[in-house]
Design goal:
Belongs to the acyl-CoA dehydrogenase family. The protein has helices at about 5-20, 35-50, 65-75, 80-85, 90-100, 105-115, 230-265, 280-305, 315-340, 350-360, 365-385; strands at about 30, 35, 120-125, 145-150, 150-160, 170-175, 180-185, 190-200, 210-220, 270, 275. With about 375 residues, the protein is of the alpha+beta class. It has 3 domains: about 5-90, no CATH class; about 120-225, Butyryl-CoA Dehydrogenase, subunit A, domain 2 (Beta Barrel), CATH 2.40.110.10; about 230-385, Butyryl-CoA Dehydrogenase, subunit A, domain 3 (Up-down Bundle), CATH 1.20.140. A hairpin with a 2-residue loop joins β6 (about 170-175) and β7 (about 180-185).
Length: about 375
């Protein structure tokens, strides 16, 4: 690992442990995520400490994916860490996408405020299953766009849009006659109406996850990313690294849960000895150590593939499946080791369990990624047969 990445990661970890963790009981933490006032207060502290948006350097260049991994893992040691350091989803993925495909004007208007931590963003892709809209299968997209002079008119409904409430930058996907399209949108906009903020198992994302109605949204043609019909290609540019970034952040949180469960098991006594000395408990912590190390290695391997310039769709799917399932096992065992305390709000272990459980669904359920990998196996087999 590079010296610069190790130095940034150490600085981020010190900030998260000393400054961010004391905020984990703050009264501005709600069922639908932290209030924006809390996010901005933490970002101000991160800016002062020199750890705001640490994966993007002063010249606008990014750390490599392998370097980014050790930084984002450290930021994830607290549920609030990624928000404070501006490495959280969906902003981190949106910044990556805009950095790759946005033109100079689009970057200045939409990307720069995100990098500075002055604004939040939302990615409008998923649609309600009740109406047959796009979810894991983006080809089912029902939101439409049509050209009207020098504007595009967008209509549709989106669901599970993380951070839509309070976001200032939106990336909206819609379908034209040419195929999928992506648009940059200033928020709020009266044509985008929040129907409801959905109650979900997780609670770490500002603004929660919203269902929104889009009615005759007019977007200037120069706010389209690329050309009409190129939206799916751009979605893949965003989603492959974004899946891996999720793995990085949640590995940090699972590592923290393991630290708390280990401390509990070593201090708590039952039946004449510390809990850790009972095989039923000690073995769970040992299994956690194995899962955490395997997750770390999987992330590093996939990051290395992405750093070669490969899109890495299959690799990111493998990492998403392996890491999300492993970290869920870790979080589940931590709850079990701690008993009643593990299901209480006395520590962040209970929240870690909820957040990581949701991670097995977000950015593609485990089963969808396995299905995609199975298709690749079949394609590769056919190719080998000549």
């Amino acid at each position: 690992m590079t010296e610069r990445a190790n130095a940034i990661a150490a600085k981020v970890e010190a900030f998260v442990r000393t400054v961010v963790m004391p905020y984990e009981k703050d009264g501005r933490l709600g069922f639908h995520g932290p209030e924006d006032a809390l996010v901005m207060e933490l970002r101000a502290k991160a800016r002062e400490a020199g750890v705001l948006t640490p994966h993007i350097l002063q010249d606008g260049s990014h750390l490599t994916q392998r370097e980014t991994a050790i930084v984002l893992i450290r930021s994830g040691l607290s549920p609030l860490g990624p928000l404070a350091c501006n490495t959280a989803a969906p902003d981190e993925g949106n910044m990556y996408l805009l950095g790759k495909v946005g033109n100079a004007e689009q970057k200045a208007r939409f990307l720069d405020p995100l990098i500075r931590g002055e604004a939040r963003s939302a990615f409008f892709m998923t649609e309600p299953a009740e109406t047959g809209g796009a979810g894991s299968d983006p080809s089912m997209m029902q939101t439409t766009c049509r050209l009207d002079g020098n504007h595009w008119i967008i209509n549709g409904r989106k669901k599970f849009i993380t951070g839509a409430e309070g976001a200032r930058v939106g990336i909206v996907m819609a379908r034209s006659d040419d195929g999928a399209c992506m648009f940059l949108v200033d928020l709020p906009d009266p044509a985008i109406r929040t129907v409801r903020v959905i109650d979900t198992i997780d609670s770490s994302m500002p603004g929660g996850h919203a269902e929104v109605d889009i009615a005759d949204l007019r977007v200037p043609a120069d706010q389209m990313l690329g050309a009409s019909g190129e939206g799916f290609a751009y979605a893949q540019i965003r989603l492959s690294p974004a899946r891996l970034s999720h793995c990085m952040r949640w590995l940090g949180l699972a590592t923290r849960a393991q630290e708390i469960a280990t401390d509990y098991a070593c201090r708590r006594h039952a039946f004449g000895k510390p809990l850790v000395d009972h095989e039923g408990v000690g073995f769970m912590l040992a299994d956690n150590l194995i899962d955490l190390k395997q997750a770390e290695r999987m992330i590093d391997w996939c990051a290395g593939v992405l750093d070669t310039g490969s899109l890495g769709t299959a690799e990111s799917s493998m990492a998403k499946v392996a890491v999300s399932d492993a970290l869920f096992r870790v979080a589940d065992r931590c709850v079990q080791v701690m008993g009643g305390t593990g299901v209480s709000g006395d520590t962040i272990v209970e929240q870690a369990f909820r957040e990581i459980r949701a991670f097995r669904i977000y950015d593609g359920p485990t089963e969808v990624h396995k299905w995609s990998l199975a298709k690749k196996i079949k394609r590769d087999w056919k190719a080998a047969q000549g």
